[in-house]
Write a structure and sequence with these properties.
- The complex is a heterodimer.
- By secondary structure, chain A is an alpha+beta fold.
- Chain A has eleven helices and four strands; from the N terminus they run βαβαββααααααααα.
- Chain A starts with a strand and ends with a helix.
- Chain B has eleven helices and four strands, in the order βαβαββααααααααα.
- A four-stranded mixed β-sheet of chain B has the order 2-1-3-4, covered by helices on one side.
- Chain B is 59% helix and 8% strand.
- The chains are: A alpha+beta, B alpha+beta.
- Chains A and B meet through β4, α3 and α4 of A and β4, α3 and α4 of B.
């Protein structure tokens, strides 16, 4: 098998999506940690358009954008499938991956707020997003993929682990058992899957990292916000 | 049993056009239903409760939403005719990457051009031209983004071509002047009946936008 490399950054949820997919399929790979404040020639060569992580490099050929990488991994290594066989169900799974790309970023907008109207707006958007997941995406299934973890679950990994950190730092609670019973249960189920459990950033370390990032961001924005 | 295919659509939507092209490429018969976007039908709301947007493909009663996903679905189900995606995983990834780039850039930038003025409009024009140049670079000397054959990325981008006249007119610039190869590619695509039968006339789009601008007081 040709060499697989993953250029990623701790503790990016987008990096972790790819790690989970590779590990779930048992694909050996070399992990290369990228310093985003000082981007390497390798990253710039492999992702000249966006200059972002993650980048998967397989046999020297780069694949960029985590959602695209997940589908590549599924196409390339069909064992332990992350997509169902039925075309309609595949389209539904892809719909939720796309939803994760378009809508989940609102939790990061919330992350950057301190209060007032801006925070209320970000909180409202986040709640609407979670409501759609609860009522239309997950419904009463254990995973977005059904009985077992699938590509959409990986795409929503941010909601299972990183959102809790955002809630802690911003001082808001979004997912509670009585408001989002299925989603709340899913966050637990997801993190109990052995491959996920063994491959999550340490919560305390992650909290410190993002607290520093948030403090820096808020300081650079200046007073009056 | 014959397939029942319905498309919930809106005539000027670049996203709806993509699905039309894919259906014609595969030689499929379907019922097209034009939605009134100011008064969305119960069917649309039932079939796309999350986004309430068109296009929605309804195949034997089951909905598929989001145009790139619909096109991929059509390609998977009716895989024996006119394949739009390669079977090679790397080529598929490249196609998805560029379709994603198109979806993140062209619609918003184009829309900004006809809804704004002054500095905002200039910034949108500049960025749109940069994106189109990047896409032209990706096309290179190939007849289509898909290589020898019309493919997924071609379907994703060509539907914007009927909106180019509108962008150019309200933005006062020429896309062909800076991206002649891209315009040549649009003409090549329009020679395909799937494309020419799926795209409305550029002037019709321009007149429609003229009405919209009056309605929203954009002058």
């Amino acid at each position: 098998m040709e060499e697989v490399k993953l250029i990623g950054t701790w503790p990016s949820p987008f990096s972790y999506r790819v790690i989970w997919a590779l590990k779930l399929k048992g694909i050996p790979y070399e992990y290369i940690e990228e310093d985003l404040s000082n981007k390497s020639p390798m990253l710039l060569q492999h992702n000249p358009l966006h200059k972002k992580i993650p980048v998967l490099v397989h046999g020297g050929k780069p694949i960029c954008e985590s959602a695209v990488i997940l589908q590549y991994i599924e196409d390339m290594w069909p064992q332990n499938p992350l997509l169902p066989n039925d075309p309609h169900e595949r389209a539904v799974a892809r719909f939720w991956v796309q939803f994760a790309e378009n809508k989940v970023p609102c939790i990061w907008r919330l992350f950057r707020t301190t209060g007032g109207e801006e925070q209320e707006k970000a909180k409202k958007e986040s709640m609407e997003m979670l409501r759609a997941l609860e009522e239309h995406g997950l419904r009463d299934k254990n995973f977005f993929g059904g009985d077992k973890i699938g590509i959409a679950d990986l795409a929503f990994g941010q909601v299972a682990h990183w959102l809790e950190m955002i809630e802690d730092l911003v001082g808001v609670k979004l997912i509670e058992a009585h408001t989002f019973p299925h989603l709340h249960a899913w966050t637990k189920n997801f993190k109990q899957v052995p491959t996920i459990k063994e491959n999550l950033p340490d919560y305390g370390e992650m909290l410190m990292y993002f607290k520093r990032a948030r403090d820096n961001f808020l300081a650079s924005r200046g007073p009056g916000m | 049993m014959a397939d029942e295919i319905m498309l919930l659509d809106w005539w000027s939507s670049m996203f709806g056009m993509r699905v039309r092209i894919a259906l014609v490429e595969k030689g499929l018969k379907y019922e097209s239903r034009e939605e009134d976007l100011n008064n969305k039908s119960p069917l649309l709301l039932e079939m796309n409760p999350v986004h309430r947007k068109i296009p929605v493909l309804i195949h034997n009663g089951k909905p598929i939403c989001e145009s790139p996903i619909i096109v991929e679905y059509i390609d998977e189900v009716w895989k024996d005719k006119s394949p739009l995606l390669s079977t090679d995983p790397y080529q598929r990834a490249q196609a998805r990457f560029w379709a994603d780039y198109i979806d993140n850039k062209i619609f918003q930038l184009g829309g900004k051009i006809w809804t704004s003025k002054g500095e905002d409009q200039e910034a949108a024009k500049k960025e749109l031209m940069e994106c189109l140049k990047i896409l032209e670079g990706e096309l290179g000397e190939k007849p289509f983004f898909g290589g020898e054959n019309f493919g997924f990325v071609d379907v994703s981008l060509v539907t914007f071509s009927c909106w180019f006249y509108t962008y150019e007119s309200f933005g006062n610039f020429s896309i062909e002047a800076e991206c002649p190869k891209l315009i040549a590619w649009t003409k090549r695509c329009l020679q395909k009946s799937s494309v020419s039968s799926s795209l409305p006339d550029s002037l019709k789009i321009h007149d429609f936008v003229l009405q919209l601008r009056k309605k929203f007081g954009i002058e």
